[in-house]
Amino acid sequence: MPFIINPTPEILWGPAPIDWCEPNHPEVNPFGVQEYHNTWTNIAYVLAGGIPLVWSFTRNKHLEQDPLYTLSCMSVILTGITSAWFHATLIYAAQKSDEFFESCAVLFMAYCMGFPLVSTTTIPNMNEYKMKRFFIAMTHCLLLGLGVLYIPEVFCEVHLLLAVLCAVYFFSVKRIPSILNLEDRAKALKCSNTGVIISAIGFAFWIIDMAFCTPFVQSLNLHAYAWHFCTAFGLYNGCIVTRMVDDLVWKQQNGIKNT
pTM higher than 0.90 for the full model? Predict the structure, then answer.
């Protein structure tokens, strides 16, 4: 595939250039999907984004709703929906939609970590800060969408990796030091590290599924039951720890002991 793509309707609604290890048998499942296991397991992403989103409106009522956090959770949900669409149909537009929303999920998470609304740093003009933060993030999101369509080699895997590294960096350098209580800091680190490790395990199985597609590997459905479940857990933990740090810093600022 060329470096720069012209996404014509024929390309967008044509077959995706990638197929997974799971055999395509739409005739043997009740829904006629191409990859049955790779399709239904995307429910994990819907739950991974949906549960933290609901909790942000119920358990964290004392915190101001962060639109970028909401968009991050919604992007996780849409990752599940578009990934299911992709594996059910194996068309190019579905693949790009899946890749766009998974990048958005991490991208918005990185902005929440790097430019938090609940911070130990005094922000002179909070309204202006919020507007600039939202505008820059949405502009980045728009450029990401164009990049995924026209330069997928860069804006899919490479951009996603950079977004993950930025989120981890901001969390480690900016957010963790803002938690003064060592027990609370250890709790946040444990949650974050668990998500990173489980996601890395899922990525290892993704490589095995791609590179060593033998009949035995096919029978394991690693893309469905390892990659989907592990990365969904990682995204869930990312959403949880993002709001957890906001909660801990808010309680710290208001002299409330964490329970």
Answer: yes
